[in-house]
Amino acid sequence: MQRKDFIRLSSLGFLGLYSCGISNFKSKTETLGIQLYTVRDAISEDLEKTLERLAGLGFTQLEIYGYNGTFFGKTRNEFQMILKNTGLKVISSHHTTGILHKDRGTLLNSWEQSVEDLHFIGAEYMVCSYLFPEERTAENYRKLPELLNHSGEAAHKAGIQFAYHNHDFEFEKFDESDNIYDFILKHSSPELVKMELDLYWMAKAGIDPLVYFEKHPKRFPLWHVKDMKAGSKDFAEIGNGTIGFERIFKAREKAGLQYWFLEQDSSDKDMFESIKISKKYISEHPYFK
Q1: pTM across the whole model
Q2: Which residues contact 178 (CB under 8 A, 6 or more apart)?
Q3: N or C: which end of the chain has fewer CB within 10 A?
């Protein structure tokens, strides 16, 4: 650094930032991700405008939902052009099983095409996102690890990591020794099937994620980060609830965390206002970076 720049930075109070590595600080800021389900209402009105708005708020990484042979009604080429125009990258994509709803893009219907299209747009993860209530039977639970392994194997061939996303029902007892979540972990391949940990749903179930990090290290590369209101246990902006994020994020290496996504399923405010509240809290707490 030249002396005149040193003096200028020092006088402005920026020297501490420089010595800590401005480039590193910038790169951390540039990797803010969001699950697009958070803004599903806005997307239904105008996909590109919504993505432009998210990019303007500083988001660069996305987890998408609803692939059904198209991306929000767009071909893969059209969607890729929108991503290019907005400077956003799809990291991950959510898919249901297809056990009940036999739509394209589910694990049991056109999965190979799904993998090909997600590979085309550069996604790194594909995730089994949800079991509908009618799918939550003992028979389906017993078959689930095999389905996840099979889906993970197809994704792996394309260089994509497969994962399973939890809600709270997975922590209900399945048999005498295991809950559903433990059953999935025990009977699916640790290489083919990673876990996307939803911090809200695990907290709602009364489960400590650090216990799972210790039992299954490096198996939790993706997280959904959202907060839970005291009392009602409704969804809250990050920092406006009861979840102790600092303790969880300090265990990120044990968990194997690679990417995390801000998500809020619903809000008592305008959703973009909620996003800004969460984003402000994230920016003020370095353990998120």
Answers
A1: 0.89
A2: 186
A3: N
